[in-house]
């Protein structure tokens, strides 16, 4: 048995992009990401759009074949040949509840499809009963199992997606921005559902989002991504009160503060320049073209994640040298 439920080591996902008649350039969507998740724990993964968050989750589950790196589940290596052995333990809740559900299938068939594939029932009555239990578990009326997805609201559709992921009793779920497409009031309900399920079932989450407030509320630890790499990782409260990477500092300064006095006293840290093209990454640190502290060392050497104490890791020459 491993000390961690999920271990990701130097995960890479490169997509070949045609840049000429006979040439292709690798787009490094994920470039050497490593992290661990314990049983029943939530790791938050944040970053701006296009940084590779979703690709990490999909590659981890082998929805995209990894270009490189290793994934371990409960100490066992996960690869292309044996991924089918881990499908019941590792599931995903997708971002868009409007496109992730088949409009031609009833809710009972959407949720029951996983039961069919893994043969987790002995009769149709047992299947129907199990689907009803799953719908009730996520806060849906089991009597509506015969309805189609278009007959439900966005929040209800996302609950259907959660029930579908729970159908095979997984131990780990990748939550790919599961509340970003929902109204704020509905977001709170879905987040509470995730928390209740974790408390009841002991599920571990990789919670992907761009909203730092949501991730801080959900996660025990948070990893910050920029241009395909993790630039900082720390316990949630430590990251909020003591961010070390300039990118993390800028993200946190943009979080709305409800108290007007505190908001006026806080200082916004704007980012300079534009996001570089992933096909033409800057030398050294990818963030240096937008960093107010960039030095010659940042252009010459790529900083690696280093532990600065108390489980706080940062990939920044300035933070390490302080």
From TrEMBL:
Key words of the record: ATP-binding, Nucleotide-binding, Transport
One Gene Ontology term of the molecular function aspect: ATP hydrolysis activity
Domain of life of the organism encoding this protein: Bacteria
Record-linked Pfam families: ABC_tran (PF00005), oligo_HPY (PF08352)
GO biological process: peptide transport; transmembrane transport
Record CDD domains: ABC_NikE_OppD_transporters
Domain ABC transporter: start-end pairs: 6-252
Family: Belongs to the ABC transporter superfamily.
NCBIfam families according to UniProt: oligo_HPY (TIGR01727)
Name used for this protein in its record: ATP-binding cassette domain-containing protein
Species, as recorded: Candidatus Pullichristensenella excrementigallinarum
